[in-house]
Amino acid sequence: MSWISFKPLITWMIALFHPFFISVIDIQHNNKEATLEISVRTFTDDLEKMINKEYHTKIDISDPKQKAKANVLIQQYIQKKLVLTANGTKSSLDFVGFEIQSESTWSYFEVKNIQQLKQLNVFCELLFGIDPQQINIFHVNSNGVRKSYELASPKNNTQFIF
Question: Is residue 131 a contact partner of residue 91, using CB atoms and an 8 Å limit?
């Protein structure tokens, strides 16, 4: 057997014994609708832990009986920990909803009345407090240009210019 055949097994074992703490935030500027469309991907168990820590309440996001409670808590938590300032104006994140995909929770938001996106300032402390190695990866798309940035705890802000 060659080294290459063991590589997937080794990668899996490293991931198992050394968990990673990553969230992905995707921001799309929709010219036609004049909106920012935001999707936030977090690990479900980490999101539940942070909601519990922040609001002193236990939540099972995947439990359909707790859907209304989960909607409120996810919205409050992400709106508190993710602040966007578009073109010099602090943006209001309108919660659209969330869905569970495998071990991840996708939360969706929208910012209205963004005709052009020239500058986006980001403040983000999503899941800071779970692990000191937490990383929030941003992908921002505007007018066909994609920019990405990694915020590693404790760094909590960045700026995108288009």
Answer: no
Burial 12-41 (b: 16+ CB within 10 A, else e): eeeeeeeeebbbbbbbebeeeeebbbbbbb
Q: What is the pLDDT of residues 92-147, one digit of tens each?
A: 999 999 999 988 999 999 999 999 999 999 999 999 988 888 999 999 999 999 99
Q: Are residues 123 and 156 in contact, defined by beta-carbon separation less than 8 angstroms?
A: yes
Q: Is residue 105 part of a domain?
A: yes
* Domain enclosing residue 52, as ranges: 21-161
* 80: DSSP letter: H
Q: How far apart are CA 68 and CA 59, in angstroms?
A: 11
CA distance 75 to 69: 10
Residue reference for tokens 């995707």:
26
Q: Are strands 22-30 and 94-101 parallel, antiparallel or unpaired?
A: unpaired
CA distance 47 to 142: 28
Domain count for the chain, please give it.
1
List all residues 6 or more positions away from 40 whose beta carbon is below 8 Å from its beta carbon.
23, 24, 25, 26, 78, 82, 106, 107, 108, 109, 126
